[in-house]
Amino acid sequence: MADGASSSGMKDDGDLEKLMNQLGICDDDLDDVVFEEEGPPVEEIPRWLAVARVHTEAEYSQTWVFANIAWGLAQGVKFRAVESNLYVLQFFCLGDWEKVMQGGPWNFRNLPVCIEPYDGFTKPSLIKLNSIPVWIQIHDLPEAFRPMASNLASRVGKYEAKEGDSMDFFGNFCRVRVKLDVHAPLKKAVSASRGGKRDIFIVRYERIPQWCEVCGLLGHGYKEHGNGIHAEKDMTYGQWLLADTS
């Protein structure tokens, strides 16, 4: 399914002048309906909204997509398909909304689900849905380098949070939460240098959805890459990238 393309084939990227040129209209053709800055009464503004899409080019049933995600919600969720593979979601309590926004990564049939908060006023098609939150593990990181964990993690994705260091923690790695760009290959390692000496640290991913062991991209497996037949030497993004969280 195409990501973010309208059914008419006309793309609205938020550039009003460009859109007006595409439509062949000018200011005189428009008569704005003016919304007051204070807006409608608070109780009438939809709350706890999000927009989402499934990161895939494959066809799937939109009817069952969110019924098959293991949200574990207290009060459920209502969703509306606004385009092919683009949805507006409404949660019914703050707890459920926060659980979904702060949790993840979420997946549908092991395909990544990109989901972002929604204010209810922006065009849904203009919300960037190109990342998922993931906890990564940076392995064998020396103690003196741990304060640099956020800098190292930023080479993998957009830094969000770091798990606090604890002397009773079991595991030779540092946990950091990042937003992964679903259009970029997974990073296998990060590096740092001190005094001209480079160190390389292996990266592993917790609860990550399906990825391709050949190209490292999310959203398809190696059997769906090319003709699906690959030499073992070409499958460099192996299952070792999946962190053991047991």
Beta content comes to 25-35%
- From N to C, what is the helix and strand string? HEEEHEEEHEEEE
Overall pLDDT confidence: 84
| SS content category | mainly beta
General form: globular
Q: Summarize the biggest pleated sheet.
A: 5 strands, antiparallel
Work out the radius of gyration: 21 Å
Secondary structure: number of strands: 10
Number of helices: 3
Flag low-confidence runs: 1-8
Instruction: State the strand order across the main sheet.
Output: 2-3-1-5-4
The separation of the N and C termini measures: 35 Å
Helix content: under 10%
Provide structural commentary.
It contains three helices and ten strands. The chain is mainly beta and 246 residues long.
Outline the secondary-structure elements.
Elements: H1 16-23, E1 49-54, E2 77-83, E3 86-91, H2 94-102, E4 107-108, E5 111-118, E6 131-139, H3 149-153, E7 158-162, E8 173-181, E9 189-194, E10 197-205
Antiparallel strand pairs: 1-3, 1-5, 2-3, 4-5, 6-8, 6-10, 7-8, 9-10
Short précis:
With 246 residues, this protein is mostly beta strands. It is built from 3 helices and 10 strands.
Name its key features.
246 residues, mainly beta, five-stranded antiparallel sheet, 3 helices, 10 strands, 27% strand, globular, disordered N terminus
